[in-house]
Amino acid sequence: MEMYAKMTSFRARQTPNYVKFLSRRNGLYYAYLTSIFLTIGITYLIFNWFQSMKLILYDKVDNWEEATFVLIKTDDDDCILIKPIFEENTTSEPRKPQTKVRYFHIRQKKFKISDGTHCTSIQDSVQSDIEGVISNADEALDPLAQEQAEKLLKFHGLNEIRTRNPGTLTLLINFISSPLAVYQIVLLIFEIIIGSYVHTSVLVLYVIVQGFIALTEQWEKIDRLNEITLHSEMIKVKRLVNGSETILEINSTQVVLGDIIFVEASSNFSVDALLLSGKCAVNESILTGESSIRTKSASSDSDKLLRASSAVEYVNKGTIAVVVRTGWDTTKGSLLESALQKPKKWQKFEKDLLIISITLLIIVSIFNIYLMIYDIVFRGHFYARGTLNRTLEFITGCVAPSLFFSFVVSGWIVSTRLKNKGIFCFESEQLRSVGRIKTICFDKTGTLTELKMKFHGVQTIDGFVSRRSLNVNHMLSSGKTDLIFALACCNSLDIVENKITGDPLEIEVMHSMGFNYVIDESENQVFVPSREFKRVSRLPHNFAFKKDKFTGFSHTSRKMSLIIEAEGGKGTYLTKGAPESIVKLCDPNSLPSDIDRFIANFASKGFRVLALASKHLSSVNEENPDTNLNFLGL
Questions:
Q1: CB 492 within 8 A of CB 552
Q2: Beta-strand relationship, 144-145 and 234-241
Q3: Which residues contact 342 (CB under 8 A, 6 or more apart)?
Q4: Checking DSSP bridges between strand 320-325 and strand 559-565, what pairing results, if any?
Q5: Residues 471-530: pLDDT tens digits?
Q6: Which pTM does this prediction carry?
Q7: C-alpha torsion sign, points 401, 404, 407, 409
Q8: Which DSSP string corresponds to 238-249?
Q9: pLDDT tens profile 373-385
Q10: Cβ 239 vs Cβ 149: under 8 Å
Q11: What is the DSSP letter of 378?
């Protein structure tokens, strides 16, 4: 029976199909090492280019506890990783006793083998456990003991995203084992055999310069990456020291899984953490591309996760969170890893070069067999040396060695020019492909052009009203009170440290309706209409609309909704979202007949179009209010 283990979590770029447990065949492995020495590295090149050949060096293991290696195979059959299994008697998870842990590394992350069928990321399982404790009101999350925190730090390492320098020898071996370098070395050997020492010296110079450029680019890449990713700051954590709860101020690199930290304003949050209490406003634009500020609260059922690299703009005093990911396991680390740690693949140019070389070799072989037969039959003699030289000259002359040199140097020049413009190139070998691109399409036009959007206007059944022409008094007199409510109140705004946070566009629209968003005497967040609105609507001067049953935007429903509570317990249900989603929920009689034409017209001009709808409720507790809605406009 083959032992497979499904990967329940793999946050790298490639998704594995399965994991297989192995043990090394020592006899074959030592024979493999000997062949590398005898063939001057040719065996290593072949096994390095064709990863699946390495499987002959290992045996499958039925008992996973006896396995010493693990095979990870991804959706890409060329990407096969064979990793050693480590075993330690240590503490790998917070608030758990010291146990024997069997694990393996995939790049910078650790995956534990829990049984013969599951391999899970250690930090993924920690987050699941902590989420379970938080959701259980009967359980409390105690601070970590200082001794356990030290053991966790030793096992997981520092909380930093550092790219390690593999060393000059490793980089040199990687360069020499690349198809282009091997091809040039073969040409170099051919030139020596022919006796063309001028060409030989030029080829040697080519290879040396290319190697120097490759090593220099790799060193610069690592240094630049560390400049971008390395970050540290002082963080307050709550720990048990000698049995008593103590607040310590430590460097963010010393923070470990399960630490309870105090959230403070920061331009670069250093861990992934779940809120335990309090509220804060964060900007996750560096991760999501969306420039709007999002409010996260421990009391909310939605997203409570503070992600590494987020900018914490505002935070309530006393807000605390528990660390669930550190280092490369954080959202920032996984994002960088998916972009940088791609498995090495042959470029199309390298594959074409291999095909051309094999084709030329076949043609030359046929041609030389013909010449050999001709010399023997018609001339009565055969010059082996002359035939060999003629063959090698034909091969070296078909593909000029300077071609590869020009590729490397031109790539280096282009990457240098990009770097001078503030564009850092991680994969200079891709520049040959990038140079052929004529058109680049983006779906983030607003983010690329400016950091905010502007409110253009409203398309109602009666016609289009621009932003400047919106008049609250006219809207009230024409019975468009619900439209005012939808524009002013249907939003995801929040108040943190007495400041309104959220989408700047929603703030602008709310203020254009004469509304404000404040905290009342009862510590509730309410919408305060303008004096003119209160006068026309005959509302008390201190009246405010309470925000009830707010449901934030969901990518599945593609809308947000809330209920505005009015006098007498009655309410108005308001929703805003993608026109395609809102239209389906509306009463057909309230929809204009040419609504599709309006949506298509606005979209063709590059506008972000949102639909608005409402429904009057007899009670704010009415169930399933999002049916037979009244369409208000776009």
A1: yes
A2: parallel
A3: 13
A4: unpaired
A5: 777 787 777 888 888 888 888 888 877 788 777 778 888 888 888 888 877 777 888 888
A6: 0.68
A7: negative
A8: EEEETTEEEEEE
A9: 777 777 766 666 6
A10: yes
A11: I
